[in-house]
Design goal:
Layout (H helix, E strand, L loop, with lengths): L1 H6 L26 H21 L3 E4 L6 H14 L5 E6 L4 H6 L3 H11 L4 E4 L7 H4 L4 E4 L22 E6 L8 H14 L3 E6 L5 H13 L6 E5 L3 H9 L3 E4 L10 H8 L4 E4 L4 H4 L5 E4 L4 H12 L2 H18 L2 H14 L1
Parallel strand pairs: 1-2, 2-3, 3-4, 5-6, 5-8, 6-7, 8-9, 9-10
Helix pairs in contact: 2-3, 3-5, 7-12, 10-13
């Protein structure tokens, strides 16, 4: 989303980008490495240089989520750069830092409040996310949902009514709190009842240990013909899988979950959604386009997916309404117009 923001063309503002780039893969996110420590100080110097060279007045920064290592990374960066700028904008792309700090030791809460405290603007992706902006006493708080390019348009129309095999799709980093094991347990129940399903997982595994756990579960429960892990897919290859799927499943309870861009991707491809009552997800997935269940509810997830499998007319109609909702609310153009208005107002 930041890449989309900096590449856009504006009439009211200019953006000068200092790339943070701490992790080269999902598996290294949140891990302490010596080169990351050096990178913090390199990044501070680059921000100082950009301030001197381009003379921007506002610093725009995406704070850490609810995790200690990224918070400890943010603190020195913000303490040593915020005083250079007249205004600060925090965009809480990861949600939940306020929940983490409210339970943290006093010394960490105190330093963090000083580093993150009193920004001029806080941007949150959903009204249902933790009140991170309020926690840091932001002067103004805006709710701005993400928006994406319409990748489905070249592949429309999609005809799903006559398919014999029902394909269920999950997209995201593969980790337990994204609901991967919840979906696998639901898959075990579904596989006992029918043979006309296929569940595809797109994404990297968070760790070697979890990859072993998930694949062992598949093997022990004889799900090899039902479940497939296809790894990371991008561009045309990814969109073809979306086109050939029938139901999108996103049973996340990930602490940093704030929005879920993959939900917008599912909507643009006319997919009905089964997801969780978690963070900003219910802001996106309304009852006419999907089914929401509590987190970690294997049986309810099974029931929701089975209901859509057994009612192809319903799932096609929900999918069409999902695309309509995407076009009305979540295109990239709409998102960038709102972002420019808010940032230029600062």
């Amino acid at each position: 989303m930041i890449n989309r923001l900096i590449k856009a063309t504006y009439t009211k503002m200019s953006i000068f980008h200092v790339k943070m780039n701490f992790s080269d893969s999902f598996k290294s996110v949140g891990k302490v490495k010596l080169k990351k420590i050096f990178h913090v100080f390199e990044l501070i110097c680059r921000i100082w240089m950009a301030r001197i060279k381009f003379k921007p007045e506002v610093i725009y920064y995406p704070p850490a989520g609810p995790d200690l290592i990224p918070i400890l990374r943010d603190i020195p960066i913000l303490l040593l750069t915020r005083p250079l700028f007249s205004k600060t904008v925090f965009h809480f792309r990861a949600a939940g830092i306020s929940e983490y700090l409210s339970k943290a030791p006093f010394w960490l809460r105190s330093i963090a409040r000083y580093a993150y405290g009193k920004p001029d603007v806080a941007i949150q992706l959903s009204r249902l996310n933790p009140c991170d902006g309020e926690y840091f006493s932001s002067k103004k708080i805006f709710i701005i949902p993400n928006g994406l390019e319409d990748e489905a348009l070249p592949l429309l129309p999609i005809h799903r009514e006559t398919r014999q095999l029902v394909r269920i799709l999950f997209v995201g980093i593969l980790r337990k709190d994204k609901g991967v094991m919840t979906l696998l347990r639901a898959a075990r129940l579904l596989a006992r009842e029918r043979s006309d399903i296929k569940i595809t997982f797109i994404g990297q595994f968070k760790s070697v240990a979890f990859e072993k756990e998930a694949k062992s579960y598949v093997a022990l429960n004889h799900l090899g013909l039902v479940v497939e892990f296809v790894g990371e897919k991008v561009d045309k290859e990814k969109w073809e899988i979306f086109k050939n799927s029938d139901i999108f499943c996103f049973p996340s309870y990930f602490n940093s979950e704030s929005f879920g861009n993959v939900l917008l991707e599912a909507m643009m491809f006319e997919l009905p959604i089964v997801a969780t009552l978690w963070r900003g997800i219910p802001d996106i997935v309304k009852e006419d386009i999907g089914i929401l269940i509590p987190i970690k509810a294997d049986l309810l997830l099974h029931d929701a997916i089975r209901g859509l499998i057994e009612n192809p007319i319903r799932r096609v109609e929900m999918g069409r309404k999902a695309r309509k909702r995407y076009l009305e609310n979540y295109t990239l153009g709409k998102h960038l117009v709102i972002m420019e208005e808010v940032l230029s107002e600062v």
